Amino acid sequence: MSDGTISQSEIDALLAGVDMGGIASTPASSVKFDTAVLEKFADGLKDKLVNNLNTMTGANFEAGRPTAEATDRDQLLAKLPEMVVAITADFNTALKGDHMFLMAPEFGQKLTGLINKEENAELDDMALSVISEVVSQHTGSEITDLSADGKLPGLASNPAEATHVPKAMARIPQGTFCLFTYPVTLDGQNYTLWEAVSDEVAHGMVTSLGGGSSGGDASGTLSAADLGSLMGGAAPQQPMGGGMGMGGGMGMGMQQPMMGGGMPMGGGMGMGMQQPMMGGMMGMNTPNVQNLQFPNLAGGPTAQEQGNIGLIMDVNMEMTVELGRTKKQIKEILGMGEGTIIELDKLAGEPVDILVNHKAIAKGEVVVIDENFGVRVTEILSPMERVSDLH
Length: 391
Prior knowledge:
Layout: H1 8-15, H2 35-57, E1 62-63, E2 67-71, H3 73-79, E3 83-88, E4 91-93, E5 99-103, H4 105-116, H5 125-146, E6 156-157, E7 161-166, E8 177-186, E9 189-197, H6 199-208, H7 224-230, H8 278-282, H9 303-310, E10 319-322, H10 330-334, E11 352-356, E12 359-369, E13 372-380, H11 383-388
Antiparallel strand pairs: 1-8, 2-8, 3-5, 3-7, 4-6, 5-9, 8-9, 10-11, 11-12, 12-13
Helix pairs in contact: 2-5, 4-5
């Protein structure tokens, strides 16, 4: 008889909202998506991942060889630390399904510290926003490569959203799914970025990359639907007249190729598949293939866009100039009085930050205009610098 306690696995299941009655996972051995194709795809992305990390952090990350494997929730949980940073970025157009990233908190803190230029970074809301931006950059690279041949027009994903949670609380795909593992190294320290996509998304990715049909199985055998697709949409026909042919015996369930609808030709056939008919092939509808025309991205804003911007030109926005920041303990703040000197994180003569709606957009130097303070703009921050200056 039970003593009323529950195991850690039961606790994890309850936290994840899994029915304790059990959800049967699809055995990895029955997975039908081609992990070799997906692993080759990931290998082509590793350099882009490292370039994005190095650009955003100013560090020198190095990438190891990524892997792609079929796995399930229990197998993934065994790889993860107790706490994780989980980032969801589900595909919503062309491909639809679960798409998430996972990393150890130490990796998230390292990225945040490098980008925000602070030691011992905390995984607060601002840090999670920075991590989401890192993942968005990698997702953008994936979408670019998957859309290159036009097989996934309009491919897009939801905005990346990061959370710092126990691993059992992460929204891991159900059943069997594809897990990409990207190992990266910085200054001799190893880090890992995991990426999980649902079975449906993995099938779509393989198809877009020119791999085997998503309806086939791991052994490469074609199903009836796959054969019909290859034959121009025609479904396989049943054997005719017991499958008797000229010049040799027929195998079970087989029909020889027909020449213009005539008599079967000689030779024995294998089991389980009907060969295409020459007469049917001649009459098969040929798909209409056209070159994909991409819009010109080099042009400036259109007249309509300029008109839309004009609608908000009179909107007021708060602009502030920040001399510097510091952190104090509560007891130090309560102990402040007249004459207390607060030391800021800016050096004397260092440019001050110019913010619009609390977002840094420029740097400048303090000047005096008559009897008033002012600021002369000395530098406009690039978009990447604006991300780096998030605090």
